[in-house]
Amino acid sequence: YRPQSFRSPVKHPCRRSCALASAHYRQCDSHATSCAPTSLQIPAPRRNLEVAAATFAADPPPPCRPVEQPLRRLGALVRTRRTRDPGDVDQTLGLGGRVRYTRAVTEPAPTKVKAPYPYAHAPHLARTGPIDARSLTVQGTGPLEIEIGPGRGLFLLDRVRERPDARVVGLEIRWKWATIVDDRLKGAGLGDRARVYADDARLVLPRLEPPACVQAFFVHFPDPWWKSRQKKRLVVTRPLLDQIARLLVPGGMLFVQTDVEDRGVAYETLIDAHEAFEADGEQGGSARLSESPWSSRGNRERRAIAAGIPVIRLRYKRRAAAG
After folding, report:
1. Catalytic status, residue 223
2. Are strands 194-197 and 208-209 parallel, antiparallel or unpaired?
3. What are the phi and psi torsion angles at 259 (to 5°)?
4. Of 192, 223, 259, 262, which residue is the catalytic one?
5. pTM flag (> 0.90)
6. DSSP-derived pairing of the beta strands 288-289 and 312-318
């Protein structure tokens, strides 16, 4: 782009701009004196560039008339265009005007205020320090069952009604569904012995006290992560199994199910290799179940059954501590 000072502010009879670097000047050296206005008297660029620059410095062109447009940031280079104004023909260069770049000096557009997160009030456990298992529910007594990743909470809601003597707690990493399901429990009058917290089970279980305080763990359709870089998000891992084994009472249950065959085989291999768990399936030495032993069904399980997708169900029990 050419500096503004090297542009003519008027329109010439030949309808060509007398800019110093124009092709018309390069073709005709006499054009500057034949068609340029007498007030400018622009010499040919190849003959006297110094005189031309001094002439423009003494009689600069009028300022550009930029088109109004929003600015992204203060001081940005903004592309503007000269406009045709019937009352100010001298500021028009050519039929459509010329484009130039100017330094924006006006104030930037106001910053858009982000709306508050609608689930910022999601229920959470203490961020640090030990967590007493009796404080998880208002009702501090009774068998405790924990579901890791309840999602939309259909299984948890059914389980609370199916076990009126038990306390049921869900650990859901998504704040939205933790809030919704927890509100549903309170609305159904089950909030005294059932809660859902918006926390990561991998961070909560190591701080849960005392040991051997949980009757059952449920893990339904976990780990929807298939890429290598997503392995750090996996839930069913050896560290989690160690914490589940620490918290389960002797004879307590661990139930895992999935509709992905490869994941089911991997879970079965991983848990079978853990010394704290014993397979408790339909056949001796196997943890697999053909059907769910209870009537509670989660959303994903209902969809899999309706679509005819086989579900791999694994049930284990906690071995008694040695000695």
Report:
1. yes
2. unpaired
3. -105, 15
4. 223
5. no
6. antiparallel
